[in-house]
Design a protein that fits this description.
Layout lengths: L1 H22 L11 E6 L8 H16 L2 E6 L5 H13 L4 E5 L4 H10 L4 E5 L8 E6 L1 H15 L4 E6 L4 H17 L4 E6 L6 H13 L4 E5 L4 H11 L2 E6 L10 E7 L2 H12 L8 E4 L7 E5 L5 H15 L18
Parallel strand pairs: 1-2, 1-3, 3-4, 4-5, 5-11, 6-7, 6-8, 8-9, 9-10
Antiparallel strand pairs: 10-12
Length: 337
């Protein structure tokens, strides 16, 4: 009798376990990795804006485990940018990143054609139902670059060289002019948009012309074409202020300062927001001096302590909103013949 009862209990227990096993859901397959595609309309080894963007994409791959894809070397022509963005969107990634304000209109058009794909423009000013812009506020470090130039110039004349007239470049030039005027209202600014971010022969010609015009500090907002300006500055013993990355760490003899605006943070930020479920459409996300790893003014070792201290105070006043950084410039331009 006891044996029969024991066998009955074992049978009931086995049936209960079998029933639980039958009701247990099958293990879910591994989540599909995030996929991010990027349009980089330039050379990913330009030592500047394009390289920084590519660095951000590689960080998305290494730190978020994402599958990444990119098209580079596209000229900043709206039709060509649209064509490249369509190619990327047709691959159905989780996110398409268009790198640079020159992509504003192209991204807006293509995002409307692919409503199921998310789009981000880095340094952009466009939004939509599936489109946002992520912007590193390079105008804040450019303003400080202008202030530094105003304090360091001995001739009272400083230069600025950029390539194409995209919104971020125009804003950076305006901020540089405003910072210069704030600390040295009598200083003269020679500013030139030469039409090409990557032409070293052209940038050297412009730099030499500005140096002939008495500029002893030149702020360069260039990509691969920066080397021509570096060569001109080295030949004529003139200092330069770089942008995007810390050029003072690379060449402190030429670079007195560098308006760091590391756009890789905007690229990575867009990917991380998506991975974290925090990405939202129709927003403009801004990264400024409050994130010093992304935006700051780097200074060469020979910059006097008094200049450093004053610049640190000005940076704090920008962070707190006491100083409003102007992004409008209506002054003269320097023509190179």
């Amino acid at each position: 009798m006891r044996l029969a009862l024991r066998l009955l209990c074992l049978f009931v227990l086995a049936a209960a376990v079998a029933g639980c096993s039958a009701r247990k859901p099958a293990a879910s397959p591994e989540a599909r990795p995030l996929s991010v595609a990027m349009l980089i309309p330039g050379n990913i080894a330009d030592g500047g804006f394009m390289e920084s963007g590519h660095k951000g994409l590689m960080k998305i791959q290494s730190e978020l485990g994402a599958k990444v894809d990119f098209i580079d070397g596209v000229k900043p022509d709206k039709d060509k940018l649209e064509q490249a963005l369509r190619i990327l969107a047709q691959r159905k990634p989780d996110l398409v990143i268009a790198h640079g304000g020159q992509c504003n209109e192209a991204a807006k058009a293509v995002a409307a054609q692919y409503p199921d794909v998310r789009f981000v423009v880095v340094q952009g000013k466009v939004t939509g139902p599936n489109l946002s812009s992520y912007e590193v506020l390079q105008e804040q470090s450019a303003w400080l670059a202008g202030a530094a130039a105003g304090m360091l110039t001995k001739t009272g004349v400083v230069g600025h060289i950029s390539g194409i007239r995209v919104v971020p470049g125009l804003k950076g030039r305006a901020a540089y002019a405003a910072g210069l005027k704030y600390v040295n209202p009598k200083a003269r600014l020679l500013t030139t948009f030469c039409g090409n971010q990557d032409d070293n022969e052209l940038s050297k010609k412009v730099a030499l012309a500005q140096i002939k015009g008495k500029a002893d500090i030149i702020f360069t907002m260039l990509n691969s074409g920066r080397q021509g300006a570096i060569d001109a500055c080295r030949e004529k013993n003139v200092r330069q202020i770089g942008n995007v990355k810390d050029w003072t760490a690379q060449d402190p003899q030429v670079f007195a300062a560098s308006a760091v605006a590391d756009v890789s943070w905007a690229v990575f930020g867009a990917g991380k927001d998506l991975a974290d479920g925090a990405w939202k459409p129709a927003v403009e996300k801004k990264i400024g001096l409050s994130d010093p790893e992304a935006v700051r003014l780097a200074l060469a070792p020979d910059v006097p302590a008094t200049v450093r201290e004053r610049l640190a105070g000005l940076a704090e006043r920008i962070r707190t909103g006491e100083i409003e950084v102007s992004v409008q410039y209506d002054g003269p331009e320097f023509e190179v013949k």
